[in-house]
Amino acid sequence: MKLFFFLLFVPFCLTAQKDTTKQKQFELEFGANLITLPIGLFASTNNNGGFAKNDFNSVTLSNPFVFVEFRYLPRKPIITNIFGLKSTTIFATKISGFRMPFDAQSFDKNIMNAAPGVTVQSSADDYTSLNFMIGFYNYYNLSKKQKKFYFYDRYFLGLSNVKLPSVSTSSNGQIISSRGSGNATSFCAQLGIGFKKSVAKKFSAGLGIDLFSTSPVFKNIETKTNNGITTYKDVRVPISILTMMSASFGCRF
User: Fold this and answer.
1) Residue 79 three-state SS
2) Can you say whether residue 85 is alpha, beta or left, with left for phi > 0 and alpha for psi between -120 and 50 degrees?
3) What is the rounded distance in angstroms from the CA atom of residue 101 to the CA atom of residue 55?
4) What are the angstrom distances between the C-alpha of 174 and each of 98, 124, 169, 170, 230?
5) Are strands 167-171 and 203-214 parallel, antiparallel or unpaired?
6) What is the pLDDT of residues 213-229, one digit of tens each?
7) pTM of structure
8) pLDDT higher than threshold 80 for residue 101
9) Is 90 exceeded by the pLDDT of residue 244?
């Protein structure tokens, strides 16, 4: 944790230096994470878990974590030395979103383990989110030619709006309980590392790995049972997602 805050604030504390190498100031990049893996409580299938599905089909290409970024390089680049490596800081605004299936089969197993002899079958919507974040990159040049091939670390903070899936559970063809959906907005953070290569004067491509985290609280979620009981309660779902093989394509101007 100390290392994270060190990396987070060092670039802002050091004096900007003039860089004589010409470079485009703005960059627009589009991308998707080809592997989106729910981890921690979000993927847990106990009573406090989020039941996010994490089988092979769910975490690969079928549910990409997509994003668009707008980046800005100051006219006087911020050049710093971190652990002996020279880096350039670039600021960014990011919009991203994900769709994650709800693991209805594991949800059913929980119910049947608690009530032996009862057979149930549930259906559910997916988790979805829309995220707005701001942050910065530290670029480390790895090639002899300036601004051709980089390693980077990146840090983002912002707001995330998440939709909680509705869940309907049936037994012997009759609905015995249903939980409504809801939306909640909460703070979110994303940390990542990766590589980026300039393809031409105005274009670039990259690969990376990121950890996204948010913890929404869904207020007054309605649950109904077949015996006429209706309850309302707040549902908290800590969401942690590890995204890998992030492929992107950008243009500079």
Assistant:
1) strand
2) beta
3) 10
4) 32, 16, 8, 5, 17
5) unpaired
6) 999 999 999 999 998 89
7) 0.84
8) yes
9) no
β-strands 149-164, 126-141 pairing: antiparallel
Q: Which is it for the CA torsion 84, 134, 67, 203, positive or negative? A: negative
* Pair of tokens at residue 28: 């627009």
Residue that has been written with the tokens 């079928």 in this structure: 62
Domain boundary assignment for the chain = 25-206+222-246
Per the CB < 8 A criterion, the answer to whether 245 and 193 are in contact is no
In this structure, what token pair is assigned to residue 13?
């504390």
> Is residue 225 within 8 Å of 26, Cβ to Cβ?
no
Q: Is the pLDDT of residue 23 over 80?
A: no
For residues 163 and 192, what is the distance between their CA atoms, to the nearest angstrom?
24
The sheet carrying 121-124 orders its strands as 121-124, 167-171, 174-179, 217-225, 230-236
pLDDT in tens, 171-213: 988 999 999 999 999 999 999 999 988 777 667 778 889 999 9
